[in-house]
Design brief:
Chains A, B: It comes from Knoellia remsis. The structure is a homodimer. With about 375 residues, the first copy, chain A, is an alpha/beta fold. In chain A, about 45% of the residues lie in helices and about 10% in strands. At the A-B interface, helix 6, helix 11 and strand 9 of A face helix 6, helix 11 and strand 9 of B.
C-alpha cells in the first residue's frame, strides 16, 4: 500500500493502524466533545464502534448516516500524507496522556511538525489576550524565550497577541513550541500567521483535533482551549480582559489539577484585569518571570521559587553562560550534573568549568553530588 | 492650674491626669519598645513605676538617672499646649486599642489635629515606597480618595511618594486621614511636607509616640511602622521595592492578624517587586481598587469583594452621587439605610431619592430594610 508513509505505524510504541483509521473516521463523523461518541469509543473501542455504526446497530437516530456515507478514508489519508500531517492516537509514543483526564478526550490528534507531540509533556501553556498591550507582548515573548531556553515546551494557540508572542519568544530561543489550532491543519489560522505556523512546525509542532478542512467556529475555540490546558503541566495567563477566552483555558487547567498562574500588570490596564481576577478569586499563582513559572510547574520537583531579591554584584558580573547556569540551579535543593545539563543544555566540560568558576567567586557550593546556590544573607 | 487646657481630662472616658503625666514622663525617659519599661508599666502602672524609679528602687543600673534629672514635666506640658498637642493614653476615648496587641505598645501618643485619634478605628494604612512611580502615585491617590469618601480613615506616614499621595487623596475627598510620624510633633517630617501635615491636622490628626524635639532615627522609623500596622484594620502596600520599609509595616500587620493587601503593577517595575513578593510569598491579598480594599477590611462585616466585571451600561450612565451610592452597596449582603449613610455620607432624603432612582433602572432592589445590588448575569 503506497498510502501513509507519514502515518505508517512506528514499531512497538505505536497503536495499531486499524485503530488509527477508525479514529480518523470517527473524528470526521462527530464534533469534538460529543458525549455519546466518547461513551461508544470507551465501551466498544473505535474499530468495533465503527463497525456497529456501519451495521446500524449503534445509533438508532441515524444522525451520523450522512457523514458516514460521504466518508472517504483513503482520500483523507492521501491529503494528510500530502500535507505531512500525522494522526496521533492513544497508545502512540507521543500521545499526550494529560488529555485522557478530559471528560471528552480528543478522538485523535492531527500533528504537523518536526518536533512531534512529545514536546508538550511537562510543557507550559502561555496564553492570553488577542488585544494585548506592548507590556503583555514583551512579557509573553520573554516567558516563551525563557521557557524554551530551559527546554520546556511552550504551548499556545497561535492567535494574535499573547499567543503569537509566546511562540515567537520560544522560536527566538530555538526552542520547542507547540501550537494547538481550532481548525483543520490544511490552512493557517489566523491566515496572517501562515509564516509563524511554518516556523513552529519547523521547530516544534502544530496540532488540532479537527480534520483537514474543518473551519474554526466558536465552540471549537473552547474545545481547543481545553486541549491546551490538558496537554500541559501548567497554564500561565499573561494578559487577559475579563471576558478573554484564556480565562477559560485557565479554569480548565485548574479543574484538571494543573498549575495556573497569571502575570500581574497595572491595575489601570483592562488587559490585566482578568489576570488579577484569576489571582484574587481563583487562587492562581502570581508569577513575574520565567524562574517562577519553572518552579511552579515543578520541573525536577523543586518546590519553591527563589524569593525575589535585589541583584548581587557578583551575580551581575557573570558572563551569559555562567549566568544561565547559576540561574538554573534550583534554590532549595540544588541540582546534580545531569539535572543541570537538562536545564541548561550546556556541555559537560563547559558546565564543570562554569561551576568551578561560580564556586571560586562564592556563588555556588558543591555538596556531595549536588551544586547549590550560595545566597546573600 | 493654668497648664494643659489642651490636655485637661475630658470626663468619664478619659484616663486620670496623674497617669497621663506619668506616661508623658516615661515617654521622655525611654526609647519606644524598651522591654524593661514595658514590663515595669505593666507590673506597677506608670505612676507607681515612676515613683519607684525616682526612689531608686526600680532600676539598679541607674541608666535612666540622667534623663530623670533633666525631666521637666511642666515645661513639656507648656510646649504641648502651645503646639496644641494632646497626650492620649490607654483609657482615653480615642486610644487606639489595636496598639495594645504590640509586644511593646506606645507609652502614650502625642496627637495634633481636629479629627482626633478615633479616626483610625477601622481605618486602613496605605503605605509604600518613597521612590514611587507616577503609576503608584496615581493608585495611592485614588485609594486614599476612595477610602476617605467612604468615611474610612486613611493612615500613613507622610513620607514622600506613596504616603503623601494617599494622604492627599484623602484630603481631596475632604475625608479623614491620620499621619504617624517618626519624630516629635514640634517639626514637620519631612520638612517639605509642613503644609501637607497642617492640612492633615485640619482634617484628621498627626500622631507620634515620640516626645517633642525627638529626631527621626532609623529604629524610630521601624517603631513608627509598627504603630501604623497596629492602629489600623488593614495595610495596603501600593508600591514597594524589595527593601522598602513598607514591607516591614505589612509584615507587622500580618503578624498582628490584620488584613494585608498589595496592589500589583508591571512586573518590569522594581517598585512593584515588593508588592508581588508580598502576594506570592506571604499570601497578601491582591487588590486593584477601593472597593476591594473596603471589602477586605470587612467594614460592616462584608465578606467578599464584588467580582471584577465589565462595566454595565446602566451603571456607566449614573451621576456621581448615584454612582457613589451604588458603589457603596456591598455585594453579598446589601446594606440598610444607616449603613449606607455611614458609607456614603449622603443625607437621608438624597439617599432615599437616589435609591429610588437606582431601583427604577434595575440596579438595586429593596429587600425588607436592606438595599441590594442587582448584578448582571
Amino acid at each position: 500500500m503506497t498510502l501513509s508513509v507519514i502515518n505508517a505505524g512506528r514499531g512497538a510504541a505505536s497503536a495499531s493502524d486499524e485503530e488509527r483509521w477508525a479514529r480518523l473516521a470517527w473524528s470526521r463523523l462527530a464534533e469534538p466533545q460529543t458525549e455519546e461518541v466518547t461513551a461508544w469509543l470507551r465501551r466498544h473501542g473505535p474499530v468495533e464502534a465503527l463497525a456497529r455504526l456501519r451495521a446500524g446497530s449503534l445509533d438508532p437516530t441515524g444522525r451520523y448516516d450522512q457523514r458516514l456515507e460521504s466518508l472517504d478514508i483513503d482520500s483523507a489519508r492521501r491529503s494528510l500524507d500530502r500535507l505531512e500531517v500525522r494522526v496521533v492516537i492513544p497508545g502512540d509514543d507521543d500521545w499526550p496522556e494529560g488529555v485522557e483526564q478530559l471528560a471528552n478526550p480528543p478522538i485523535c490528534l492531527y500533528v504537523r511538525g518536526r518536533g512531534g507531540l512529545g514536546l508538550v509533556e511537562g510543557g507550559v501553556a502561555v496564553v492570553g489576550s488577542r488585544a494585548a498591550t506592548p507590556y503583555g507582548l514583551t512579557i509573553a515573548t520573554e516567558l516563551g524565550e525563557g521557557l524554551a531556553a530551559r527546554g520546556i515546551g511552550v504551548v499556545s494557540g497561535a492567535a494574535f497577541g499573547i499567543d503569537a508572542a509566546a511562540h515567537r519568544g520560544a522560536l527566538a530561543a530555538g526552542g520547542p513550541t507547540v501550537s494547538v489550532l481550532a481548525r483543520g491543519l490544511d490552512r493557517a489560522y489566523p491566515a496572517a500567521h501562515d509564516g509563524l505556523l511554518r516556523d513552529i512546525a519547523e521547530h516544534g509542532a502544530v496540532v488540532s483535533e479537527l480534520p483537514l478542512g474543518w473551519a474554526p467556529f466558536r465552540h471549537r475555540f473552547l474545545a481547543r482551549n481545553r486541549l491546551i490546558a490538558a496537554m500541559t503541566a501548567g497554564t500561565v495567563v499573561v494578559e487577559a480582559g475579563l471576558r478573554s477566552g484564556s480565562l477559560n483555558t485557565a479554569r480548565t487547567a485548574a479543574a484538571l489539577g494543573r498549575h495556573v498562574a497569571a502575570v500581574p500588570g497595572p491595575v489601570t490596564s483592562v488587559q490585566s484585569a482578568g489576570c488579577h481576577e484569576l489571582i484574587r478569586e481563583t487562587g492562581a499563582s502570581l508569577v513575574t518571570d520565567t524562574a517562577e513559572v519553572v518552579d511552579l510547574v515543578g520541573r525536577l520537583s523543586f518546590d519553591a521559587a527563589a524569593p525575589a531579591r535585589a541583584p548581587s554584584s557578583a551575580e551581575a558580573e557573570l558572563d551569559p553562560v555562567a549566568h544561565a547556569v547559576w540561574s538554573a540551579i534550583p534554590l532549595r535543593r540544588g541540582a546534580d550534573l545531569a539535572a543541570l545539563q537538562r536545564l541548561t543544555a550546556v556541555d559537560t566540560p563547559t558546565l564543570l568549568s562554569v561551576l568551578g568558576r561560580l564556586g571560586a567567586v562564592g556563588l555556588v557550593r558543591r555538596d556531595q553530588d549536588r551544586w547549590r546556590k550560595v545566597l546573600p544573607d
